[in-house]
Design a protein that fits this description.
The structure is a homodimer of 364-residue chains. Chain A folds into three domains: 88 residues, lambda repressor-like DNA-binding domains (434 Repressor (Amino-terminal Domain), Orthogonal Bundle); 128 residues, Rossmann fold (3-Layer(aba) Sandwich), CATH 3.40.50; 136 residues, 3-Layer(aba) Sandwich (Rossmann fold), CATH 3.40.50. Chain A is built from 13 helices and 13 strands. In chain A, helix 5 packs across helix 13 and helix 8 packs parallel to helix 9. At the A-B interface, strand 1, helix 4, helix 5, strand 3 and helix 6 of A face strand 1, helix 4, helix 5, strand 3 and helix 6 of B. Chain A binds a DNA duplex (30 and 30 nucleotides) through helix 2 and helix 4.
Chain lengths: 364, 364
DNA sequence: ATATTTTACTTAAACGATATAGCAAAAAAA
DNA sequence: TTTTTTTGCTATATCGTTTAAGTAAAATAT
């Protein structure tokens, strides 16, 4: 391992606390792995089966003596027993974990989703494995494969472009799966997405209603349907108003340059309002606006996506489409767990309506 | 489960693709759990031990015939074998997973840390379990306990206030552990933190050098040493300049109200520059500034923390202390894995120097 | 008094991998 | 030829659970 870093290592003195209060402990202990069912069984003078039953609350069901049950429970508590979940998973075939693959967990939008999924899963007694695919189908497949090897009970996936095969395969193998944020029309799989068409329509329509005469959109050049739906929604609105569409697409790689070019073109073409269908694009646009002293909302009207501190704190507060992130996440978890628990739950597609937050950036 | 959500459920038609191309498959398959060592052994006509050896690259070591090894390898590939990592973990006592507990993964700072840890761990062949503690010692303990039950090989923890006991206990139980972002001076445990004292000193000193006469700080009312060190650094700088310290502390709960009060007091007291030692505090401050039409940098000088789009896009670009997040994360992973691999690696404390990004907000 | 049922537990086989100890056959050494 | 060594593999215990199947003793029924 290289050390490219600018730091200083400080070796601490041998610990004066290490065995300080070894003999007493306040609350429940956290132990590495020691105590097993066998240990409890030994101490209680019963079989491991009994212990397992009692500890899983199947005492009644298996007609275990009340006295014995109490005894076992007490010993388990005393010894601070913690089940080895790997072993349980191995035996029972279900681990209580969910796998979540997003594009990039450092992206605030997905970070929020991750958090909401974490909470929702926790409420339903599951824990979550996260992974970032970086919009690479290959990486996504590797991640999913790893998650499955780790025995997750199901997956929530934000699919990237060209990942249809992987998704198909998961379906074919009956792995509980919910797509999030984006879905594939041709694959029969559960999904939870924003009503992107509607959101984009509303956003564009709002710009038009505000009096802008030439509304454009700067979108990613991807076939993923969330982006296509946003473009469709935009087109629908401009068409309805009898305007020409101004769709500027940019590739994700070499983003900065591509964005700059698109933006310049928009300005040259006399576009007087822009719908920006992702946070990243919106943020880039705000930078461009600052750098080129474009006047918002007079010279250029703006509706962005997803929101964030930067939107609120920009010199002119930015209007945006707000996704109900929490609802999307909760719904995805609910559907997934339903599929896991209820083996033959039906495939569900959920489309949640977003809201338009209107600020000054779109009110000339 | 309640459905408080605004959505419509769309039931998809039964899948026309479900068995579409069941007979051929392009790339490697993702299978739920089917193929085991035993299956391969059976097909190859050898024992499971052989298969295990070969697949783990211990062929030479165990003098396995080249021919046989090749054969096994090929069958494994054909059957698309994927090891059950739970089983391996159970048997070998090591799972190749790391547990990471941060305050809140939806916080951009920690989201970035999560991402960097994920990448670093991946490079070193491990995967990561994340959890958010919400700055609650109780929740942190529960999370850690769960992670240990899941068999993580080690932990990276952003400890919260009052979590000393839990950390002590982990040490006592020899669980590989690295604290991140914050550490406890009295506990002999590895840590990777920013040189907070230095960073705060630099930031404050910069404000003083810029000519501000009454520099204040708005900090959280927590005993955690990252915050205390930031306050100390601030105090050192003002003291050195012969100025009085203006430390305004706020509780984390009821944050908005508390912040407002602190901010008002600062302005009333004639503070002409502020050092804001976290992102959250900085963002709140920017909101306050907008709401109260405070002139930056003339009326009030500003140095924030951690950066972000909002800092760049604010009407006056905001100066800030930049943490080398990537380096912090990578270092934490390196140290942790070193502790895991090299059982008696020594405890290391690493303090990385941050840099001051100067913008207009601190140049009157 | 014997048969049946109920109660309260135990045995032991999995789950899928790893790893130690051991065994036969072939090759080399004596 | 016999002994030793090497080569190439197998058998099996084990990790910590769960769970089906079984059993022995006590209680109830006949």
């Amino acid at each position: 391992m290289q050390n490219l870093l600018d730091y200083e290592i400080i070796l601490l003195p041998l610990c004066r606390y290490l065995h300080a209060n070894a003999s007493f402990m306040k609350t429940e202990m956290i132990t590495l792995k020691k105590v097993s069912l066998k240990d409890i069984a030994a101490k209680a003078g019963v079989s491991t089966a009994l212990v397992s039953f009692v500890l899983n609350g199947k005492g009644q069901e298996h007609r275990i003596g009340e006295e014995t049950a109490r005894h076992i429970l007490q010993i388990a508590k005393e010894m601070n027993y913690r089940p080895n979940l790997a072993a349980r998973g191995l035996r029972s075939g279900t681990t209580g974990t969910l796998g979540v693959v997003v594009s990039d967990i450092s992206n605030p939008f997905f970070a929020q989703i991750a958090r909401d999924i974490e909470d929702a899963a926790d409420k339903l007694g599951r824990t979550v494995f996260f992974g970032s695919s970086d919009e690479s189908a290959e990486k996504m497949k590797t991640l999913i494969s790893g998650l499955i090897n780790r025995g997750v009970d199901g997956l929530i996936v934000v699919p990237c472009e060209h990942s249809e095969d992987t998704i198909q395969e998961l379906c074919k193998n009956k792995i509980p799966l919910v797509l999030l944020d984006r879905n594939f029309n041709d694959i029969n799989v559960s999904y939870v997405v924003l009503d992107n068409f509607n959101a984009a329509y509303k956003a564009t329509r709002h710009l038009i209603d505000s009096g802008y005469k030439k509304v454009g959109i700067i979108a990613y050049d991807v076939k993923l349907n969330h982006m296509q739906d946003r473009i469709r929604g935009y087109k629908e609105a401009v068409a309805e108003a009898g305007m020409a569409a101004n769709v500027l697409v940019i590739k994700q790689k070499n983003f900065d340059k591509a964005f700059d070019k698109a933006m310049r073109k928009a300005m040259d073409d006399g576009v007087d309002a822009l719908f920006l269908p992702t946070v990243t694009i919106t943020i880039s646009c705000l930078h461009y606006i600052n750098d080129h002293n474009i006047e918002i909302p007079k010279q250029l009207g703006l509706v962005g996506f997803d929101g964030g501190d930067a939107f609120d704190l920009f010199s002119v507060p930015v209007s945006y489409v707000s996704q109900p992130v929490r609802h999307l996440s909760v719904k995805a978890v609910e559907i997934l767990i339903d599929m896991i628990v209820n083996k033959n739950a039906s495939v569900q597609g959920v489309r949640i309506v977003g809201s338009l937050i209107v600020r000054q950036s779109s009110l000339p």
